Amino acid sequence: MLFRVQGVTAFYDKSQILHGVDLEVRSGEIVALLGRNGVGKSTTLRTIMGIVKPAAGTITWGGQPVQGRRSHRIARLGIGYVPEDRAIFERLSVTENLLMGRRAMQGREQGAGAWDLERIYSVFPILRDRQHQRGTTLSGGEQQMLTIARTLMGNPSLLLVDEPTEGLAPLIRKMVAQILREINQAGVSILLVEQNMNVALNLAQRGYVMAKGQIVFSGTSQEIRQADDIRRRYLEV
Ligand SMILES: Nc1ncnc2c1ncn2[C@@H]1O[C@H](COP(=O)(O)OP(=O)(O)OP(=O)(O)O)[C@@H](O)[C@H]1O
Ligand SMILES: [Mg+2]
After folding, report:
1. From the CA of 48, how far away is ligand 2's center (Å)?
2. Which atom of ligand 1 lies at the shortest distance from residue 163's CA?
3. How are beta strands 3-12 and 158-162 bridged, if at all?
């Protein structure tokens, strides 16, 4: 199914953050959304999810408009969202956290295969080892994996992931990247927001570069790597 964002604008109070965002994710793709701090990447994901209301533009999923709907409705259409802050339930065990992800999506038609605890634990062996532990006792990387896994329990066809490797050690970063690759191979399309350009471009087939609330460049991962001027102006610090 084609996911398409066209001309989307958004505000926080009176300050305009998104100035007409256009992007697409096709079935089976991993697409990177890149850009410096504060350009509007997270706001783009929040607007797609209906957490921030789009002021103009259209967001369609398989041709069906989703803008203006409530967040939980959008999620039930098969769009999973992994926010920047790992919002796990600290008092609940790993297994209970995962089951909450399922419960939140009850009644939703199954998307890309049905994720259950067994399948989750085969992709995330660390979570199997920690299944009885409370959320609070997990490391940052484990919490990130749990957040991704919990979202998968709702069987999304498209996953929006915001900075999954932020603040993680290089080895854990690699594990998270590998997990995203496996999830994608299992049939889930991914829109990936990443500050780390290398992580993002290694995973994604294509990407968009954002600056000041607009897409300023789009291309294959290789084209973005080779676009020296774009990289210098909009990506490198
Ligand atoms: N809740 C909010 N209220 C007001 N302004 C906000 C709010 N959240 C973000 N902003 C502002 O909107 C702009 C875009 O923020 P956003 O979080 O989308 O950027 P980002 O590209 O995700 O940045 P980062 O790489 O730092 O995560 C920034 O100027 C930010 O200060
Ligand atoms: Mg952000």
Report:
1. 14
2. 27
3. unpaired
Distance CA(152)–CA(149), nearest Å, equals: 5
Q: Which residues are found with C-beta within 5 Å of the ion, ligand 2?
A: 41-42
- CA–CA distance, 139 with 47 (Å, rounded to integer): 29
Name the β-bridge partners of 80.
159
Say whether pLDDT at 105 is over 80.
no
Q: Taking CB atoms and a 6 Å cutoff, what residues make up the pocket around ligand 1?
A: 12, 17, 35, 37-43, 195
The pTM of the full predicted model, rounded to 2 decimals, is: 0.95
Choosing among 3.70.10.10, 3.40.50.300, 3.40.50.11720, 3.40.50.720, the CATH entry for 3-235 is 3.40.50.300
Residue 111 has pLDDT above 70, yes or no: no
- Taken in order 173, 178, 181, 183, the sign of the CA dihedral is negative
3-state secondary structure of 217: strand
The per-type count for the chain, helices as H runs and strands as E runs, is 10, 10
Contact 48, 74 (CB under 8 A): yes
